[in-house]
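Backbone-to-sequence.
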C-alpha cells in the first residue's frame, strides 16, 4: 500500500467510503475498513457484493443494526449466516434476513 493510499484510508472519510463501495477494492483493504468507526463505511462494506465472507461475518456482529441489516440483505452473505441472523435482536435485521433467506432457498 502506498503512503498516499494509507493516509487516505485512515484520514479521509470520503475516500474510505468510496473504497468500501468499490467492488474492485482488494479484500485486505476491505477488511481494514470493517474496523473503522464510521457507520457509513461499514454499511457500504456490508452492501458491497465483493466483500469477502470473512468481513461479512465480522460485520454481522456489528453493534449497529443498520450494518447487520445490510449484511443480511447482501446476496453474497453465506446462507448459514443469513439463517442465524433471522434471530437477531433487531427486528429490521430479522426481516432482512428472513426475506433474503426465503429468496435464496426457493
Amino acid at each position: 500500500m502506498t503512503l498516499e493510499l494509507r493516509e487516505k484510508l485512515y484520514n479521509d472519510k470520503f475516500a474510505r467510503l468510496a473504497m468500501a463501495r468499490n467492488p474492485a477494492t482488494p479484500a485486505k483493504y476491505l477488511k481494514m475498513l470493517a474496523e473503522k468507526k464510521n457507520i457509513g463505511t461499514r454499511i457500504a462494506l456490508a452492501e458491497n457484493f465483493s466483500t469477502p465472507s470473512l468481513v461479512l461475518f465480522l460485520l454481522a456482529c456489528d453493534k449497529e443494526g443498520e450494518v447487520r441489516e445490510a449484511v443480511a440483505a447482501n446476496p453474497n452473505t453465506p446462507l448459514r449466516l443469513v439463517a442465524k441472523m433471522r434471530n437477531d435482536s433487531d427486528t429490521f435485521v430479522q426481516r432482512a434476513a428472513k426475506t433474503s433467506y426465503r429468496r435464496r432457498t426457493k
